[in-house]
Amino acid sequence: MSGKVIEKIPGKKPRPIEGHKPAAAVLRGVVDRVYGAAWDAKARGELVGWSSSKFPIELAKAFDLNVTYPENHAATTAAKKDGLRLCQTAEDMGYDNDICGYARISLAFAAGEPTDSRKMPQPDFVLCCNNICNMMTKWYENIARMHNIPMIMVDIPFQNTVDVPEEKVDYLVGQFQYAIKELEKLTGKKFDEKKFEQTCKIANRTAAAWLKACSYMAYKPSPLSGFDLFNHMADIVAARCEIDAAEGFELLAEEYEQSVREGTSTWEYPEEHRILFEGIPCWPALKALFKPLQENGINVTAVVYAPAFGFQYTDVRSMAAAYCKAPCSVCIEDGVEWRETMAKENGISGALVNYNRSCKPWSGAMPEIERRWKEDLDVPVVHFDGDQADERNFSEEQYKTRVQGLVEIMEERKQKRLAAGEDVYTNFDNTKETDWSKATI
């Protein structure tokens, strides 16, 4: 690639907090428990549901319902190299290969196609929310038809203004009330207000810990790589209302804090460049995505996908507003502001964009967002063709070529800035510099 040989930095590997397992292992155990609990509930004859990842799951948890997540299941299936087979099965069933790879994997699995990835029980009901995209509605409707089961829908229309207007909050509170009534009919139970409030407290604690962990990418050098956050997506999706998830993310943030003090990092290479990685990763090609970056000392220190699951709120109305804010369902101004703020806080010198064929709402806005980055931040931006689940839509050679082009531009700019005595990265009054003189290595 660049001609440099990037080798690991000796002794840079972080350690767990004394007296604790590594946070990553703790969080893996949480997700295993969530899925195990669903299987146990199924065995007892209790209702088990499938939920979209950004459904306000706090509502269902007030009824002690066990749910699993098709998006999480599809990502795991794709990462384990079994996604293509299920995508093709769905296509044989009549679903077009232009629709989301997650949906095709999920629809094939719902129809009975087996997979060796993380298994989840078939659903007795589905919970759907279209704050990700409107395709979710048809995806979950088809699952409901296949199994002849109820679908509980929360409609969150596209957020075309930066601020969520009060009339939209009124509408969404009505949507929540409708979902509660449907859940009461489904379970034969009354809504437990106290349990709901307790669940919301846990969800907010989890979100706060997750966002805190994400924030440590702002340090230079960073104590982590954005790819570490990708590895925790199942945790924040499947377990954000679980107390052990909150504790696991608090432990993760504590590990990153310790790494800052000790001068260690999960990114065990020189940090030659820091970039923003835009979009959902190509799960079947994680190694192929990571290797060219590692070979060139490029650390991913800004991602939008991970912190997008950190919903924080104080009451039901602010909860409704919080669930409006998903990357695919907000206006261009919000999308640009999120990314540019992160770029400034986390100190990037370039951006790498996945034009994700499976996620057209996300990718459709990217040409304009890219233009704004180049104009506002003066950073090079390159993109590649990819897919979150269908490996046919990703070319490793094209990706390597695009990374090489980004490296060349960033390296040229870096040398010019160094020669002029300027900061290598975009302007970062609030990027946190690690004081290595105080580090305990």
From TrEMBL:
Gene Ontology molecular functions: hydro-lyase activity; iron-sulfur cluster binding; metal ion binding
Protein origin, superkingdom: Bacteria
Swiss-Prot/TrEMBL keywords: Iron, Iron-sulfur, Lyase, Metal-binding
InterPro entries documented for this protein: FldB/FldC_alpha/beta
Required cofactor names: [4Fe-4S] cluster
A Pfam family annotated for this UniProt entry: HGD-D
Record-listed E.C. numbers: 4.2.1.-
PANTHER family for the chain: 2-HYDROXYGLUTARYL-COA DEHYDRATASE, D-COMPONENT-RELATED, SUBUNIT OF OXYGEN-SENSITIVE 2-HYDROXYISOCAPROYL-COA DEHYDRATASE
Entry similarity comment: Belongs to the FldB/FldC dehydratase alpha/beta subunit family.
Protein name, per record: R-phenyllactate dehydratase, medium subunit
Gene name of this polypeptide: fldB
